[in-house]
Amino acid sequence: MPVGGRHRNTLRALLYLSPWLIGFSVFFAYPLIATVYFSFQRYDLFTLEPVGLLNYRYFLQDEAAWASIRNTLWLVVVMVPARVLFGLGVAQLVTKLKSGVGVFRTIFYLPSLVPLVAGTLGFVFLLNPGTGPVPTLLSAIGIPSPDWFGDPAWSKPGLTLLALWSVGDLMVIFLAALLDVPKQLYEAAALDGAGPWQQFFRVTLPVIRPVLMFAAVTGVIQTLQYFTQAMVAARVASGSTDSAGSVFTPGYPAQSTLTFPEWLFHQGFRDFAMGYACVLALILFAVSMVFTLFLLRQFRGLGEEDA
Amino acid sequence: MKSPLLLAAAAGLALLASSACTAGTESAPGVPSAGSTPNREPVTITMWHGFSADSEVKAFEDALAGFRQKFPWITVNTTKAIQDDQIIQSVRGGNPPDVALSFTTDSVATFCKTGLFQNLEPYLAANKIDESIFPKVIAEYTKYDGKRCVMPMLADTYGLYYNKKLMKGAQPPKTLSELAALTKKLTVRDPDGTIKVAGFNPSAQMYENVPIHTGPMVGAKWTNPDGTSAIASDPAWKQLMTWQKDLVDWFGYDNLERFRKTFGDEFSADNPFMKGKVAMAIDGEWRNAMIAADAKDLDYGTAPLPVADDKPQLYGSGFIAGTVIGIPRGAKHAEAAWDLVKYLTTDTDALVTLSNALRNVPSTLPALQSPKLDKDANFQTFLDIFANPNSSTLPAHINSAFNQQTLQEAQNNWESGRAKDLDALLADVDKKINEKLKLTAGG
């Protein structure tokens, strides 16, 4: 091929690639390079000063950052499996209903449509130990309630409860997967003498495994970015309005609801320590990558199994 | 095929990266004059403020009417309900308003250090403005590192509100031990121990009981001149927190928390003081206006905050902070903007108009003396606190919000009993504040 033709081909290829190239450069490569660059700077959003590894050294002794890591891991380990199990349980129940399937499906799905802030506000109000209807009702029948969002031991379980309430998004996906399991498999299993539990573990679970994996992957990624509910619950429970003259203590009570993205946000946009916030962002990126790669590998394994 | 592709991508990334490193570093404008008066050319300026309630916006527009009369060649376009982060983004984006107002003083150090707000010292010098019209303490929250980049527009002071009916004839306490004794006397519990009325809620988690407001009761110091923490080394904090903990323990922490959680929103008609759930409360001068609007029948009084028994000279003083206003870097009409800033912060009539409508303390000493200023005995308490030479503020600090958060967390851990050793707790507060200072300021 003549030289001119080769150049034309290169240009044409670049032109075809340009949407991806531009998108990749502007929305991924540049932010990533900038984040790495800023992580070695003292950056208050206006002025830059090289500080070497100072931001990284600060991270090692930043108790709040480590508390936020512990909290985020707690949520990944407890909240994600709880949501998957609960979502699957509810979906399984709905499939077994003889009548009113549409009504129950709607009732279970609706909470997931409630805006996060409104849902969290409602939950904190319902569980308020002073005036909340749930503790009032429970105490009337002699059951004491904890201070859900005011006691460090109960705040994360409180958030988990909130996550279970809005499990409708997962339930719908599981419902579709459960209804997709071929009936003849159950019939064959029944003929072979399998009971309901055996049918569930030997037929249902293997067939819906890819959907479970999807729920786990998206659940882990969402939980690594968990922010709004923790922030709103802490604000309401602490009674802090963050108005002039008062400062909100993120993670109230006792840093028990402080999540990693929340601390990152406060470092960057409240304390103007953007260089340090970039270190936290890189750590979050690395952890997300590890999880994603691990789960992608699981997916690939599944694909080969299916083949 | 591969190399041109890589080259193009690398060039693009390098370009983007270099542009990132220079974002928002444009230079400040030239030397200011005395304002826009000399040439009186018609000019339109933009002003962003944080007022959002209809009554607030109206009060602010009323004050601006006086400005328009005085400076007819300047048209002011206002935008309401603005937060600090919007101001920051506008300056970074190169399209800031000419004048911006901030409700919090926590960001003043950053505003000044980064040059986000212009240095106003040359304007003050050109206009021969005598800074003695402001109480001395105001300089501490409107200046950073000797540089003034914002002016005070109205102030907040904090005192003690007391419900006369619940006080049963008792006089407001002047010392912490009197406050503790009266609290115990006035607290009413149900037979099962549930608190029905608290004399005073000593918890640091109670609305306005944050350490910036309670610190002045014991004359506590936040920082040393070099910006490092003075919290562990100043015995006043230990004195305050020990007093608070003793009183919290008298109520029982869980009991007090359960009681606190029955309170309505602080800024609504359900506020516990306005509802008669607490006999005494620490609050800002603005509570007077809220009581007038939502609890007209409440028979109450105001007094300075009680102080440490061994520091009676502090009685009459309190905490001062307020709204600040300045000219962001990159403002297109800085001279006319200065006219507005000067008017809103130094003109007695403007400050009195705003104070009468918003019920905040006017921020100059001449405005305090104005016969046009509406005042009754309850509001006068706060004017006196403002004028008291012992009143204090939280000096502008690059980590102001973080420092407050760190001490508040320690106070919560202490009063709840999660932390047992107060000395170790305060030493940890010092460590965190000092490490953070190294991170953000190299201190």
Automatic annotation (TrEMBL), chain B:
Stored Pfam families: SBP_bac_8
Keywords: Signal, Transport
Molecular function as annotated in GO: maltose binding
Signal peptide: 1-23
GO cellular component, one term: ATP-binding cassette (ABC) transporter complex, substrate-binding subunit-containing
Bilayer-crossing regions: none
GO process terms (BP): maltodextrin transmembrane transport; maltose transport
Domain of life of the native organism: Bacteria
Record has Oxidoreductase as a keyword: no
InterPro entries registered for this protein in UniProt: SBP (IPR006059)
Record family assignment: Belongs to the bacterial solute-binding protein 1 family.
Database matches in PANTHER family: MALTOSE-BINDING PERIPLASMIC PROTEIN, MALTOSE_MALTODEXTRIN-BINDING PERIPLASMIC PROTEIN
Protein name: ABC transporter substrate-binding protein
Species the sequence originates in: Sphaerisporangium album
